[in-house]
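Write out this protein's structure.
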Amino acid sequence: MTSPTPTLDLFAPEKRAEITAKALELIQLRAVIAGSRPGMFMVISSDGTNTYMIDTDERSCTCKGFLNYGRCYHLVAAEMLNDFQRKARGSWIPSRRN
């Protein structure tokens, strides 16, 4: 079974609930901001001191976690918001899964 976002599938099953909670918190705090084109987002770090650029099409983030491990909760949050926005517009296509 696949997760709500492709990146969430990259985390160990026992970490997915924690990552999902962190991602949802960023969305609730309005710390995930749509960029200049579909799939691009800016995310403000949970402590408010950094901003990261997210590309959901390329599945990339500029944070250290992504650079070191190829996954992060910022990208999960952006993927979730991207899917929520597509559903709201009525043009929902799930994030790609490789």
